[in-house]
Design a protein that fits this description.
The structure holds 2 protein chains of 2 kinds. By secondary structure, chain A is of the alpha/beta class. Chain A has 2 domains: about 1-95, Double Stranded RNA Binding Domain (2-Layer Sandwich), CATH 3.30.160; about 110-190, Winged helix-like DNA-binding domain superfamily/Winged helix DNA-binding domain (Arc Repressor Mutant, subunit A), CATH 1.10.10.10. Chain A has 7 helices and 6 strands; from the N terminus they run H-E-E-E-H-E-H-H-E-H-H-E-H. Chain A has helices at about 1-25, 60-70, 85-95, 110-120, 130-135, 145-150, 180-190; strands at about 30-35, 40-45, 50-55, 75, 130, 165. In chain A, the strands form 2 sheets. Chain A has a 4-stranded mixed beta sheet, sandwiched between helices. A two-stranded parallel ribbon of chain A has the order 5-6. In chain A, a hairpin with a 6-residue loop joins strand 1 (about 30-35) and strand 2. Chain A starts with a helix and ends with a helix. Chain B is mostly helical. Chain B contains 6 helices and no strands. The chains are: A alpha/beta, B mainly alpha. At the A-B interface, helix 1, helix 2 and strand 4 of A face helix 1 of B.
Amino acid sequence: MTATMDNTIINKSLERLRERAAAEGLLDVAYATADSPFGTLLLARTPQGLVRLGLPSEDVGETLADLAGRISPRILEAPGRLDEERRELEAYFEGRRQEFEVPIDWQLSHGFLLRAREGIAAIPYGETRTYADLARGAGNERAVRAAGSACSRNPIPLVVPCHRVVRSDGTPGLYAGGVEMKKRLLEMENQSG
Amino acid sequence: MAELPPFQTLIDEHATEVMAVLRGAVGREGAEDAFQETFLAALRAYPSLREARNLRGWLVTIAHRKAIDLHRARGRAPVPVESVREEAVFDPDPADGEVWRSVAALPPKQRAAVTLRFASDLPHEEIAAALGCSPEAARRSLHEGLKRLRKELA
């Protein structure tokens, strides 16, 4: 009883703390979890936009520790700041949404990888490109392997749809969330698209 | 540069304790404000922290500083007298729970003196400054508070 009451007060104070931190520019990374047909996703955003999406196969603690080192340790769980991201993903999984509109923060991508990932973001729903297409689009047609890592180490899978990049022989190729997830995503987009 | 864990980890691990410390130091009324001030100050300073080893101690120190600020503010602008009877204070460590409850039940000055002395290890002069009274009065509050605690916990 007392503990519950105290937790309520603490939660209320934390809610207020998140608001004040954001208002004072002290909330560098806000994160939340979201349900998906594949398991729990981790969403993280900066004031600029969505910066990281962790697939169910990724360890939440490791992902957050990595963001603390690469972006800022001022990281708070703040579900309210990721409402739009969660809504769009939910609609996507239900086949009601084909494009994401939430802003993206590209700060974890640079150079060729950034260009390749921007190329991935432009692949329309229900279509696929090959790793070679991707390399060519990013300005270096021989960089097929690098195009592969633009996908395999994509910080924002799903929203930057690296599952739409497949092998030249038509097989799906690898996926950070597992080949099975990649197949199911492509099937889902084929049916809804 | 120290490898700092995500700030949320500090909240998850220490929020209840910080709240308990502040309850003891400033009472229920001020604790919520002081709690926010504590974590905001911590969040502000966090990236420049050189040392990630004793984050709990660092947070508790900030909490005590915020409690002192609040006592000073109260000294300048007295607030209506708080009810002496407090509801039970929650404490994550059941062994300390009884002590905290008794501390929380002390009259405000005694409660503050006891907490500042033993939780933040302040000397009498600083307790006096924090409470806006003479060192002698601080000593007296501490003495009375301890006497009462001993009786209650005996």
